[in-house]
Amino acid sequence: MLFSLVVKAKARSKRDSTRRAFSPWRVALGLSVIGMAATCLAFAGRAHWLLEWFSHFHVQYLLCLLPFAIAFAIGRKFVLATLCTVFVLVNLAVVLPIYWGASGAKDDKGFRLLLLNINSANREHACVLDTIERTNPDLILAMEVNERWLKALSTVGESYPYWASRPRSDNFGIAFFSRLSGEIDIRRVGSSVPTVVACLETRRGPIIVIGTHTMPPVNGELATERNNQLQALARLAKAQQDPVLLTGDLNLSPWSPYFSDLLEQSGLRDARRGFGLQTTWPDGVFFLRVPIDHCLHSEEFTVSSFAAGESIGSDHFPVVVDLALKP
Prior knowledge:
Helix 2 packs parallel to helix 5 (78-95) and helix 8 runs parallel beside helix 9 (257-266). Helices cover 38% and strands 23% of the residues. The protein has helices at 2-21, 24-41, 49-52, 58-74, 78-95, 125-135, 147-152, 220-239, 257-266, and strands at residues 111-117, 139-143, 162-166, 174-178, 182-188, 194-202, 205-213, 244-249, 269-270, 293-297, 301-308, 319-325. With 327 residues, it is of the alpha+beta class. Mean pLDDT is 94; it is low at 5-9.
């Protein structure tokens, strides 16, 4: 009898210990600590190329930590609730500025830019051509263009008399189409990948359009090449006498320290400001989606619209930007 009671007591104690080990509050604490640690690491992007990846997901950290802050408050765990709230506010402070600062209203003397990272493996040719027809842009920057895609885009050239291309078998071929008259050059700027440099005439004067697709920072070597390219692009933009647009898949988010460097060194502004996140990659994973396709502009421009478009079969969404030179 006594032995049976002892066995039952030990079993009950083991169950209680298991319940405590798997307490929902312990799980919430562990997950919230991960979110807070990731937020801290997001500010250490200069220390190592891998740490920069943490800087891209402030929205995700905010959305993960907010429910925990609320749950801890309801559970009267006020220290944890306060701590989570602090980190929610930190992430909010990073993200919120992208929602204000739009620079202008619609201008009938403006023009429309379409960014297309079409994905060299993508075979949805009709979808891409339909997007071009529906958005009716004046300028098109197409990235990841190979010979197959250049052939598919050949009909576009009928409506865009000024164009140039540099197809490649990897993911860094490029093509640029323009209704605005001018000269289009394709060259290397701080990297082995091709970059478009176009001098075009608008109804309010000449502009320079720089379009590129930087290396993805998936290892230290490629991260360094991308950063060198960003610095070279900033110098090129800064050296121009005419108003400048710098656009393309830059393979970094607005919260990367190297994006801040790009803005500071080039003197350009982020056209996304005032229009919200407008996330562009990856197409298939909504919660992880971040904005890495950009349009930067000098102070002579106003931006009346910046919007990510619908899926084109690529891993990127297209981006449509309406701009104009100030009168």
